[in-house]
Amino acid sequence: MQALPFALLAIAFYIGAASWQALTLLRRAAQRPNLVRGLGIVALVFHGLVIAVVIRETGGLWLGLSPSLVMVSALVTALLMLVSLAKPVLNAAVGVFPVAAMTLVTAVAWPGGEHQEQITPGIALHIISSALAFALLAIAAVQSMLLAWQNQALRHHHISGVVQTLPPLTTMERVLFELIWAGMIMLTLAIASGFLFVDNLFAQHLVHKTVLSLAAWVIFAALLVGHHWLGWRGLKAVRWTLGGGVLLLLAYFGTKFAVEVIFS
Description:
Elements: H1 3-25, H2 33-58, E1 61-62, H3 65-83, H4 93-109, E2 115-116, H5 121-155, H6 162-165, H7 169-197, H8 207-230, H9 234-262
Antiparallel strand pairs: 1-2
Helix pairs in contact: 1-2, 1-4, 2-3, 2-4, 3-4, 3-5, 5-7, 5-9, 7-8, 8-9
């Protein structure tokens, strides 16, 4: 339970940062991106301390469902704040930070999972590229939901409130596809490294993860082709992004949930 105080502090700072950004979107508070990043960085530090404490207590590499969620959520948070320095994506903190806070609850309440003390460089490449792919495409999914909100408001001529706070629609769409392109590069690397370096792929309860990851790759690839050649954008791009995101979520965590919770 040594991780509990760090988890509570991280949750408090995550909720504080997300709340301020939500108030900014609703035009109830002034835009303070540095404040939101600052609170997010403090939360991320405590988030990292939770990971360090639990790894020390359990020993070895932490690979169960709850550990994977808490580590990937830390990466998503860090990547969001880093990307926000160059791209207008900080509004995604409204969705990302509360989810990171919820994963910390599971980390403290349910810290178990499989352990692996040594990994090869190839497996390390697979793990890192998989985590980066999920992080980028998760941010893209939140970005797409904001884009859908903005698009729907403009269709109904609601040009006040949130719409005035968000960047222009063309900027939102451009950033969305930039995130998808970056995520696709990492996802391609993750799938390729999995086939190259993971032994007995179909004997390690990884077949579902592989199939779902490939299906997500196909969806995102079709979206990029459709956007480039057919001009797909707006709500169609949102639906394809969220569809690929759901498949990727099932690929990364659905199998672990089934093995550790349903069939355990």
